[in-house]
Batch of 4 targets.
Target 1
Amino acid sequence: MNNVYKVVTGWNIGAKLKACLPAFFAVAFGFFVLVEPSYAGLAKAKTSMTEIKDWAYAILGIGVFLYLIYLVIMALVNKGSWADVGMGVVYVAVAGGVLVLGDWAWSTFA
């Protein structure tokens, strides 16, 4: 039991921390100063993703508009009911809600 006590009390933690201090400052310097140039690529990637998102929303908007026009035309020529048009509007609203939820999650967790 005495041998264990001598080993534990023989540690000089202050000296070990002082020895690690230069390495800590080197890592901190590298992290806060040298990482900045690589962050510039992240801004360009974010801009590209925003452009892709805008194009996807535009294409999706055109598709939804054509879908609703199709449902209205089918209801006008008695090939479908106006309830189908109403359900189509509900489907479009749900799909839009999912897109807004995805955009919110992207901005919150990214």
Target 2
Amino acid sequence: MTEEKPTLSQLPPMSTVVMVNGMSDRDYYVTVCDACRCASCWHGEFLCQESLTAGTVDVLASVLRAEGREHPGCFSVEKLMEVCGSVRYAP
């Protein structure tokens, strides 16, 4: 049995998310390149050497900030909305 994904109406409205400098007060998932773990690579902005054969992995924004591989602006909520059109918040 597959897990059903929530519909748009079941997700929290953006008005409940506080934004400070483009960062959400709630943790959210970021799709990144599985070779370099950078969102900018997956977005096609700064490609790593393995980008042509790499896959993707979803990582919490808090983990990416702790790793410090790229500027947090590369995976801010604002940037994800611009590039991907949506943000998937952690429960």
Target 3
Amino acid sequence: MKGRGQSTVLKRFSALTNNMSKVIIIGGADEAPKIKKIQFKECLVESNSLEPAAFQPCHFQYIELICKNYTLSAGDLMFAYDDPEVREDGFLFLGDFGDGII
């Protein structure tokens, strides 16, 4: 798998954040918000078992959040793939969707 520029998730997040207002708290510390990136922890393989994730989110053009808190131990269920026309080449991952950026 190879990365080809920004993913769709990142493009959508960038579009949202460009239109957001900056909130200033008078007397408060000027800290940048901590953004949680997407993390893959485990991959569901053909034998219906889980293996440690061999890919990083940046390897895919599309990442879909299927279910938040799918399992309490592993977290969110995500589907990652490169070509919307060939989705059968995608992978199911358990991990942390975070704020949906790579």
Target 4
Amino acid sequence: MVRQTTFVAGIVLLAATFSFQVRAASLTDFPFMVHCENSGLERAYYLAKVDPNGVAVYISPDRQAGFVTVNGPAQPVGGDGSGSCAGKTLKQLKDAGQAFDLH
């Protein structure tokens, strides 16, 4: 009986550990605004949505867009992708002073 209890407790602990690690990304995981420059033009991209797969979509007032995941690089939607945000992770954008939260 002790072995069964220990085995069940181990399975519960393992399941709790994995369920914590695969938590879906939410709006609070992403900055509210990202500042990027492309071809001498500066734009502010605002967080528009986070889809169920953890992909955040950012849109500028002039309808330019890009997306990023919690750990992946930022990518433009369309265009050549040569701007100052392209290829940077959220950490790199924050470290460069290009990502802003609402607090």
